[in-house]
Amino acid sequence: MRLTIFGATGRTGEHLVRQALAARHEVTAVVRGQHALADHPRLRVIKADVMNPNDIETAIRSADAVLDTIGSRDKGPTTVATDAALAITKAMASVGVRRLILISNSARIAGPGDDWCTRFVVKPLILRPLLRHSLDDMAAAEQATRDTELDWTIVRAPQLTDRPAKGSYRTAVDRNVTFGIRISREDLATCLLELAADPRSIHHHINVAG
Fold this sequence. Notes:
Blueprint: E1 2-6, H1 11-22, E2 26-31, E3 43-47, H2 53-60, E4 65-68, H3 80-95, E5 99-105, H4 116-130, H5 132-146, E6 151-157, E7 159-161, E8 170-173, E9 182-184, H6 185-196, E10 204-209
Parallel strand pairs: 1-2, 1-4, 2-3, 4-5, 5-6, 6-10, 7-9
Antiparallel strand pairs: 8-10
């Protein structure tokens, strides 16, 4: 496939680029400035302002799928994920590319699939207050994505770690993964690539965990 990856130099994005190239996909990595991505015959690196739809159209044009791994590391109020999602979806609609994978977070949604403690204590009383700014941003990014006519899949992940890949992961469609506490970024990248090629995940929220 021809893949365009936003957030390609982030800790998840780097795994995603490496795995995509190893799987023989053609990759366009969108970066803001200096980067450490190694040269590769199937890798194209484009420097662009992701918040400007006109600036990223070239990176998206002719892609089979676009993967948005952008998030904010700020602890205060932020709209980074929302602004990126709005720009990316607008650019995709403009150039006629439909397939989008958006990374989000599962901490905000307490409901089916969660064990009792996670559903009624951990998420509402601990994680939501602690992560409220980033979770609000991701919620708005999700809504911006759902409001489009694109073939979107929203992937909700738990705590991300830099541990080595387990080589396996669990998913649940439109519900939480029971005891889905964490997942390695490497395993998440594997999941994202598999979902990009799976039309059954279109217009679904896929929760993933290790």
